[in-house]
Specification:
Layout: H1 17-26, E1 27-32, E2 37-39, E3 47-53, E4 56-61, E5 67-73, E6 78-79, E7 95-98, E8 102-108, H2 109-118, H3 120-146, H4 149-164, E9 168-169, H5 173-180, H6 184-196, E10 200-203, E11 206-209, H7 212-217
Antiparallel strand pairs: 1-8, 2-7, 3-6, 3-8, 4-5, 4-7, 9-11, 10-11
Length: about 220
């Protein structure tokens, strides 16, 4: 049976006919409601995933329960962090949660492992994705260690307006805190400061960007 979504895989054209049939047979489309944990330490190794709809946040969790967001996944993004049992170079634990209702294509760990072993293009793509996500993790760590929170928050707000194409960001203080690796109270104080300076307008669950140039200067 043909899986129409499998054709959207970046390496689809590099697969042999038998490999395409293999992926068609053993890949699945799975839906998750907002807030659902998609992958965690307690789960079996999920495999490679490709986003079809929605948004996923990937984070690590400290023993004290503090979350540090590593990166987010959007439509057409692929991720192999959820296939950690296949890639021996991944030696730390991460969690994945649906930030919005999600639909994802899942290639199970066993199938993905066989593809990467037999097809050099799949293997190269796997490491390319891994390197890209590692770069995102390093940027996150640099921001936490070396950037003041005013800069981090300004950068996040600018990035969100660029990504969504609107100057209205529909997020709670808690959600912004999760994305910027801070505390809700810290976010509230800094947004109030930006509000008082005429850079943003803060409403319940909504941030309206008034002066994007000032944010970029920060």
């Amino acid at each position: 049976m043909e899986n129409e979504f499998a054709k959207r895989l970046p390496f689809w054209d590099k697969l042999s006919e038998s490999e395409k049939e293999f992926v068609n047979t053993y890949s699945n489309v799975v839906e998750y409601e907002k807030g659902r944990i998609i992958h965690s330490d307690d789960d079996n190794c999920l495999g490679m995933i490709m986003m079809l709809e929605g948004e996923i946040r990937t984070y690590i969790l400290s023993p004290e329960g503090r979350e540090i967001t590593l990166f987010r996944l959007y439509k057409n993004d692929c991720c192999v962090m959820s296939a950690s049992c296949v890639i021996k170079e991944i030696n730390f634990s991460s969690q994945m949660v649906a930030e919005k209702d999600c639909k994802i294509l899942v290639i199970s760990s066993g199938i993905f492992s066989r593809l990467a072993e037999k097809n050099i293009y799949v293997k190269c793509y796997m490491y390319e994705v891994l390197a890209n996500k590692f770069s995102s993790v390093m940027i996150t760590m640099q921001q936490i260690l070396f950037k003041g929170f005013d800069k981090r928050l300004a950068e996040f707000l600018v990035a969100e307006t660029d990504r969504t194409g609107t100057n209205v960001i529909k997020m709670t203080h808690q959600q912004i805190a999760q994305h910027t690796n801070s505390a809700r109270e810290v976010v509230a104080r800094m947004l109030k400061k930006f509000n008082d300076e005429g850079i943003v307008e803060v409403h319940r669950g909504v941030i309206k960007i008034i002066d994007k140039d000032k944010l970029e200067n920060i």
